[in-house]
Amino acid sequence: MTTIERLWEDFQLPIRDALHFADGNSCDVDLDSDVPSGLRVLAPFDLDEMLESDPSWVSSVDGLVAVDLGSKGLLWGGEGSYGSEGFIARLTVDRALIWAIFFTESNPFDRIQLSGNVATFSSTSGFEITVDIDDPRTQVSGQLGSRSG
Length: 149
Hints:
By secondary structure, this protein is mainly β. The protein has one domain. 9% of the residues lie in helices and 45% in strands. It is built from two helices and twelve strands. The strands form three sheets. It has a seven-stranded antiparallel β-sheet.
C-alpha cells in the first residue's frame, strides 16, 4: 500500500497543492485561471520524502458533493481542515483512491458538472477546475458547453 493510500484510508491528504495517484506518483499543481482547465500540472515530487520531514503535514478532508459514475466509481469534491482548503478526487466503487488533487487556497469544492469523461469542479470562491476524469494530467478545455445555456 502506498503512502497516499494509507492517508486516504483516514480521509487525509498532504497540505500541498498537488495531484496524487493511488500508485504513489505525485505532482505539484497550480491554480491558474489563464489556462482553460484552470489547473497547471507541474513537476513530480516524492511524497514520502516530503512527509519524512513532517509526517503531520496533512489535512482531514470531507466531501460536500459527489457524482456517481456507476461501475466506474465516484467523483468527489469537498473541503480540508481549514476554510481555505479544497480537494477533488476520483474513487473506485469501494471508495478507494484513484487520484486526488488538494489545494490550499481554493476554498471547498461544492459543485461538479460531468460531460462524458470531462468534469468541472467548482469551489465556493469561484475556482473552476476542468479535468479528464481518467487522467487529470491531460489538458482539456474548460467551460463545458451546457454552462453557457
